[in-house]
Structures are given as C-alpha cells and as structure tokens.
Amino acid sequence: MIISISLSKEMSPDSLESEFFCQLALKEQTISISKTLDFTAKSKQDLFGDTKTFNSKRVISISQTLTQVLQHHLRHQNQHKLALNDLYHHDLNLVLCRDDGSFMPKSTLFNAFSRILKRAELPSLPIHSLRHTHAVLQLEAGADMKYVQKRLGHGSVAITSDVYAHISKKLEKKNIDKFEEYTKEIID
Fold this sequence. Notes:
The protein is built from eight helices and five strands, in the order ααβββββαααααα. The chain is mostly helical.
C-alpha cells in the first residue's frame, strides 16, 4: 500500500513521513495534499501544520489502479471505524494510519519498507528512492518535465530538470531518436 501510493502519487518522503494529511477525491481520481503531520507534536492541536513549501500544497491525479487500491483500503479502514466506534481517532482523518486511526510512527513506515526490500531481495534503499523512481519512470514513459515538476511540488521546472534530466540513459536515447526522426522528415 505505501509503495503503491508513493510510486503512483509522486509524494515526497515528507509526504510518506509527514504529509499524511491528504484529502482523497476518488471519483475525480485525485489526492489533495494540504498539511503536514508533525510526529513530534505534544498535542492533537499541534499535530498538523503547513506543508514544507507553498508548492508542496498540490492536487495529484492518480491512476485507476491506485484508486481501486485506495477504495479497498478505505473499506478495510471503515470496518475498523465501525468496530472501534468511539475509540477510533475519527478526528485525525488519516488515510495511512494504525487500525485505531492514530498516526503510524516514521519507524513503522521505514521498517515496513525495509522488510519489503529484503523479501524482494533488493538492496537497502531509503524510502525517498520511491519518489525518485516514480519521477524517472514518469519521464521514461514520456511525461513532460513540467508535469513531473508539478507532481513533485518543485518550485520550478529548473529544479526538476537539474535533479532528473541526467538520470536516465533511456530518456537520453529517446530524445536523440526523436530528434533524428524529426530531422529525417525535414530532409525527406
């Protein structure tokens, strides 16, 4: 679930680690990120704050597959809400949470990610690598740099270009092939 959301939504590690508060609009297939969860807060009133930057507030389109995963997750979550009734933390309105609706500590996410990597016999990676992987896959699939910039919540396309344009040899090859095809059409 965590990996599926991260790979599909392009949420930053801050999103997985702290920007848990988001609003799902599954009919529209979007997720709106509007606040940050502060794991060090001493009271519920201080639990949510502003996002890291102005551009971190954003609405992200999600795939039909992720929408179905989230619908399944929310049905499961609703069973816990009904079973626990007043013991459930309805006021937090978290999507990724413990069975009682309270937030998961960062360590829970990191440990789950580590176990998944181990089971898949993959090397240890920081959870932030999911964000990078998604961005590179988007670019390799032909997504425009501006589109990826908006999904990432970067302040400018220059930031996104600096970080990702050089990463993929596949992307470089695609661009050279496009250029060659274009110039052939001009010459012919």
